[in-house]
Design a protein that fits this description.
Helices cover about 40% and strands about 15% of the residues. Strand 1, helix 1 and strand 2 form a beta-alpha-beta unit. The chain has a 7-stranded mixed beta sheet with strand order 6-5-4-1-2-3-12, sandwiched between helices. The radius of gyration is 25 Å and the shape is elongated. It starts with 8 loop residues before the first strand and ends with a strand. The protein is an alpha/beta fold.
Length: about 400
Amino acid sequence: MFEPLKGINILDLTAVVVGPVATWRLGQYGANIIKVENPSGDLMRGLGGLSPTGQHAGAYLHLNRGKRNICLDLKKPGGKQICERLVGWADVIVANMRPDALARLGLDAESIRASYPDKIYCLITGYGTDGPYAGLPTYDSVLQGASGIAGLTMARDGKPAYVPMLICDHVVGEITAGAIMAALMQRQRTGEGASMEIPMFETMASFVLQEHLAQQSFVPPVGPAGDLRLLSPHNQPVKTRDGYVSFTINTDAQVRAFLHVTGKQALLSDARFSTVASRAKYVSEWFEVRGAPLENKTTDEWLALFREADLPAMPCHTLQTLVEDPHLKAVELLGVEEHPTEGKTAVIRSTIQVDGKYPSARSSPVPRGWDTKDVLKELGFSPAEQESFLTQKAAHIYE
C-alpha cells in the first residue's frame, strides 16, 4: 500500500468543493480524516445533483471518499467541546469557513496555535485576509470572472464564458494538499507547525498571468498581453465529417507532417509557417490554417492518419462518450461498488501509479453523522457524556 501519510490525522472543517478536494487528496495518500459537518449538512450533498437518498450527489460522492464523518453543532457548548478535543487529536486542521466565523468559534489559526504550536493550520479563503476583497463571499464561477479566466474567452470569442466545471476549486484544492504536505515535511525536520493561508483569487490570477502576461512580462513590453495561440478563435476542436477532433502541432516537424496529411502541401514553402518563430509572428494566419474544418473524412479516419504521422490527436469526447473511451475502459478508471445507503455507485480510482499499482480508492463517503458515536468514544468521552451531547443536539448521529 502506498500510504506516505499513514498516521497523520486531518481535521476537515471544509465543505462544498475546494476543501474536500484537498482533504480527499490527503486521504489518497493514507491520511486519517475526520470530516466535521454541521446539522444542515455540506451543501454539496444536494447541490451537486440528484441521488437516490438526496444526500450523496455525484460530486460529493467522489470528493469525500476515505473520510469519517461526525456531525456537530459548533454553536453549542458541547459541540465546541468535542471540536476542541478533535483539534488536540489532529496533526493538520483544514478549514474554508469565513475567518470571522472561525474566530468566533475559537477555530482560527491564532487561537489553535497559541495552545498547539506544532499544529499545521491551513485556511482556504476566497480573497485572503488582507486587501479590499478580504472576507467577501465567493464561489467558483465568481472567481473565474475575477481571475480573468472568463475574460480569456471574451478575448477569443467576443463574450466571456465560464469553464463548465469547478476549475478554481479543483486547482486550489490540489495546491492546498501539496502545501500541507510541504508543511508536514518541514514539521518532521524542525518540529514546528505552520499557519497557512491559500487565497483562491490570487492563486488563480497567478495561473492566468503566468500564461497570459506574455509579451507584457518585459520592461518595456515587447507586445500585447495574452498568448495569441491560445486566444485565437481558431484554437478549437476541429469539425470532421461526423464529429470533432482535437490536436496540437507545435514543432516544425509536426507542422510539416500536418500539412502533408491534410493535403496542404502548397503551404510547405510558405515562409510564414516554416519555423516556430515565423508562426509566432503570423499566429493569426497560422491558426486559421490549423483550425480549418476537416469535413472530408470522419473523426476515426483523421485519427488514423494523424497517428500514422505521429501527431498528437484525440477525439473530442462528450460526457457520454468519455465513459466509453476504450483506453479508460482498458485501464479500469471507473468501477462500481455498493454504497451503504445509495446502492451501487461509480468509483473513480486513483490516477497515480506507484510501483506498478494504484493506491486504494479508500472507503465510501458516508451519511452525515455516520461515525459520530465511534469518534466520541475514541476521543475519550464517557457513555454519559456521549448521551448528553446527543440529548443537547450538540452532536448528531445518522438515523
